[in-house]
Records
---
Amino acid sequence: MLEQLNQALEHIEGRLDQRIEGEELARLAMTSEYHFRRMFSALAGMPLSEYVRRRLTVAGADVLAGERTLLEIAVRYGYTSGEAFARAFRAMHGIGPGEARRTGAALRSQPRMSFRLVVEGSSSMRYRIVEKEEFRVVGRKARVPLVYEGVNPAIAAFIKGMGKETHQRIHRLSDQQPEGIVSVSDQLSEGREEGSEFDYYHAAVTGAPAHEVPEDMDALTVPAGTWAVFEDSGPFPQSLQHMWRDVFTQWFPSNPYRSRRGPEILRTELSQEGARADVELWIPVERD
């Protein structure tokens, strides 16, 4: 998988002055566009759309060289107008191209990238593959920002605002794995940019038909499919966040599966003091 990802990077480098489509890159990597974008974001630490802006590093050199007009440079690097190029240039370099040329300003550089797998530590990742029939996620939903490190304050406030009775009602809805109250993330952006918003459910997994869902609860119907289930124990929430990262940077490149569209489900059992947790992460997958 890493070899194919690096081939896609080579393709980007050879076409920095052309429009680059995610579908084309995914085809080179021999996977789906959805999985390609997920893998790229996890390995690179940035969404594909941001890395493709590397063309603005090369364009910056042309701006400072002064051999072409700014409009010629804009067209060369795939922008439909000088205004569009100026906006993108300013977003990356913090200065417009005209001012950069006049003042000889220092510009930012996005270095060329390649991927390699580095496995640290000696612990193995515990996982199993599960086939599930259609089910429903039922509970309460909120739109929250994505946070990579530490406690997500929006989620913490959302859960704290629920009454004890609501928690108990949600818990009673659980009738299959993963059992109990779970955290469900859905409608995440493909690039997984920190701060981007997604649907968060504080909910239970149930096989109950749609007409039995309480009217005052939010529900998400999940089609039948295959799931990779990962288990870990450790400090909370650091252990969970590191496991999420390791699934995409270590497990997927080493196994014949790819991620597919669908919610990601987390079951957490906190220790009495709340500092540690046993976690179970469900990721929707399909065979390569």
---
Amino acid sequence: MTTTRVQVVPGGPVLVSGPVSIEMPDGEVVESDRFMVAICTCRRSDAYPLCDTSHRRCRRAGRRTGRAATANPGAAATTSDPAATTP
């Protein structure tokens, strides 16, 4: 018997040892043959249902509080965070 490992990441995706077939509500089947598959739980991913780490960018922007955030409210939109795009 093959065991499938599923790990829920707090504030992030659900990690599933792959390969996997994901059946969407409309009947579409999304397949991935990777050894580990990240399934999006925030629905912000451009590759939904697969995670593209969009939750990282949104979570970091939401944490901007205090003087720096109120002094320059547009800073979150113009600042590039390389860690936000690294899987």
---
Amino acid sequence: MLERLNEALEHIERHIDRQIEVAELARIAMTSEYHFRRMFSALAGIPLSEYIRRRRLTIAGAEVLAGDRTLLEIAVRYGYGSGEAFARAFRAVHGVGPGEARRNGASLRSQPRMSFRLIVEGSSSMRYRVVEKEQFHVVGKKARVPLVHQGANPAIVDFVRGIDQGTVQRITALSDQQPEGLVAVCDDLDPSRAEGTELDYYHAVVTTRTDTPDDLDALVVPAGTWAVFENSGPYPEALQILWRDVFTQWFPSNPYRSRPGPEILRTRTTDDGTQAEAELWIPVEKAATAG
């Protein structure tokens, strides 16, 4: 899997001054567009679209400093419809406009080429199981929140704190299947998974019940396959490690890929909040095989 991902990265470099289609990258990697975006962002730490933008403007920056082409020629070459659009994008990455960079020989920022390697430490095993589930419902309270890659999400924290205990108890009582009890559900994420894009967040339970109270929100989840991962340890570090290991170790080593659908996290913390047991449900499907 990682070898094919690296072939897709090589394709990006060969076509950096042309339109790069995610469908073609996914074809090279022999996976779906959805899973390719997920894998890339998990391994690289930034969305695919952002990596391509930074690489493109890194190379464009070298051409700006070289002075062999006009700024408009460089802008057009790298897919910008006007000098103004190029200048805005250039400044966003380099902190200075292209004209000023050329006049003053400014120091520019560089996005290095990436390649992926699997590092197997062997210090711990990952507990997982694969589950087939019939259609179910996620029922609880929903909010549209921005995506935050690191640290606590203030919008989610404020949202959950604003739900009164009576409502929480009514939601909890609706739980009738795994994962049991209150869960955090993320759905309808932007394909780029870029910082600040929005998603639907549910403070909810998983249930077969269809008689949802009018004051609660519901999400119908079709039948499908789920990979369920478990770990325990210091909170919140254990959760961050779990997410990282799923996409950097488990997917590259197993014949599955992620598919569209909600991601469900069940967390149980100790009374002092320092330790946690986590169970992460990821929608998956069998990956295509070579040949």
